[in-house]
């Protein structure tokens, strides 16, 4: 079953889609977080496909547009990474409130910046999360701002003078920049103490595969790392797409079922 759902916190509404298998009793749940400048369906609908495949395997899932994205409340120019973490925390609380969900079998999955947000949120809430799955985790969106004052490969060193940056036609506020300077993505991620599955393309020019390699070093033997040769950030071939779909699906089945 697929049904439209809403989650409200701090007076703003997040809108999404929940997939629930036709099983009786409490079910495991995966929270899917989309990437930077995307929505709940993700690039080429890969999160929609993953949700349906999870449902067929007896695993529920929920995909929300984060604040300022897709159909949810807010303007994209008002987003911050901390705000997305707060959204993820609100979604986690919403999921845990549902009678149909087994609270001991909840996982996060995220793509690109969503993978970074998923890892940070899972670390902060490690007692409530059973497993973590990421595709092309974009931790360097934060570290590039901190170390190089770049965003999506663009020089934004004048953001404090202008008060905003124009990135691919979207306005990013100085608040987004200041927020990123205060974050420790790897420090938060390191607090997660259960199993992790990491997938990255070795030709990713948007979020370096070094991000996932560093996460693998942090998680050690608790993490699987699949580097897909030839794949870029969008995994633009049917074999690339299937490789990451299958990797996440098999991992989440093994951890939650």
From TrEMBL:
Query: Which Pfam families does UniProt cross-reference here?
Result: Peptidase_S15
Q: Where is the secretion signal located?
A: none
InterPro entries from the UniProt entry: AB_hydrolase_Est10, AB_hydrolase_fold, Xaa-Pro-like_dom
Kindly give the Gene3D superfamilies that the UniProt entry links to this protein. Answer: alpha/beta hydrolase
Start and end residues of each Xaa-Pro dipeptidyl-peptidase-like domain? 10-152
Q: Which SUPFAM superfamilies match?
A: alpha/beta-Hydrolases (SSF53474)
Recorded GO terms, molecular function? carboxylic ester hydrolase activity
Name it.
Answer: Xaa-Pro dipeptidyl-peptidase-like domain-containing protein
Q: Which organism is it from?
A: Catenisphaera adipataccumulans
């Amino acid at each position: 079953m697929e049904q439209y759902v809403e989650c409200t916190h701090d007076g703003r509404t997040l809108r999404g889609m929940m997939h629930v298998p036709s099983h009786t009793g409490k079910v495991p749940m995966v929270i899917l977080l989309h990437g930077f400048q995307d929505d709940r369906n993700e690039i080429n609908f890969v999160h929609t496909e993953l949700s349906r495949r999870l449902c067929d395997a007896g695993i529920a899932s929920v995909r929300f547009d984060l604040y300022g994205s897709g159909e949810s409340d807010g303007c994209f120019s008002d987003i911050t990474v901390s705000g997305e973490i707060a959204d993820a925390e609100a979604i986690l609380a919403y999921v845990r409130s549902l009678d149909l969900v087994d609270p001991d079998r909840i996982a996060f999955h995220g793509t690109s910046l969503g993978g970074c947000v998923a890892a940070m949120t899972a670390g902060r809430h490690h007692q409530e999360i059973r497993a973590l799955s990421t595709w092309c985790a974009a931790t360097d969106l934060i570290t590039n701002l901190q170390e190089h004052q770049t965003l999506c490969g663009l020089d934004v060193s004048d953001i404090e003078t202008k008060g905003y940056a124009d990135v691919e036609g979207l306005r990013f506020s100085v608040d987004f920049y200041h927020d990123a300077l205060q974050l420790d993505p790897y420090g938060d991620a390191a607090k997660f103490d259960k199993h992790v599955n990491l997938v990255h393309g070795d030709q990713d020019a948007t979020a370096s595969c070094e991000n996932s390699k560093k996460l693998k070093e942090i998680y050690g033997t608790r993490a699987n790392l699949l580097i897909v040769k030839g794949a870029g950030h969008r995994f633009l071939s049917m074999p690339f797409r299937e490789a990451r779909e299958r990797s996440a699906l098999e991992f989440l089945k093994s951890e939650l079922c």
